[in-house]
Amino acid sequence: MTRVMIQDLRAARYCLAGVRPWFLRHGLDWQAFLDGGIDVETLRATGDALVEPVILQAEARASMMPEASVGR
């Protein structure tokens, strides 16, 4: 499951000063997001189309990460 991280917001060129109140309006925990990110499904559940560019950034980042070795 892909998690959106703070670097994904930055890569999407979102203003962090605007994102923090957005989290509050949607009942999401800003500090928890900063500490460990947020699931893509949680963001999509808000119904806000503004999450899609950030999700695309997160998915692109995740696709570039090497897979964990099986059996290690």
What is the gist of this entry?
The chain has 5 helices and 2 strands, in the order E-H-H-H-E-H-H. The chain is mostly helical and 72 residues long. The protein has a two-stranded antiparallel sheet with strand order 1-2.
- Mass-distribution shape: globular
Amino-to-carboxy terminus distance:
20 Å
Share of residues in helices: 55-70%
The structural class is mainly alpha
Biggest sheet features: 2 strands, antiparallel
The parts where pLDDT drops under 50 for at least 5 residues are none
Rounded mean pLDDT is 92
The helix/strand series, from N terminus to C terminus, equals: EHHHEHH
Gyration radius, in Å: 13 Å
Strand content: 5-15%
Major sheet: arrangement of strands: 1-2
Give the total of beta strands. Answer: 2
Separate helix tally: 5
Whole-number total of structural domains: 1
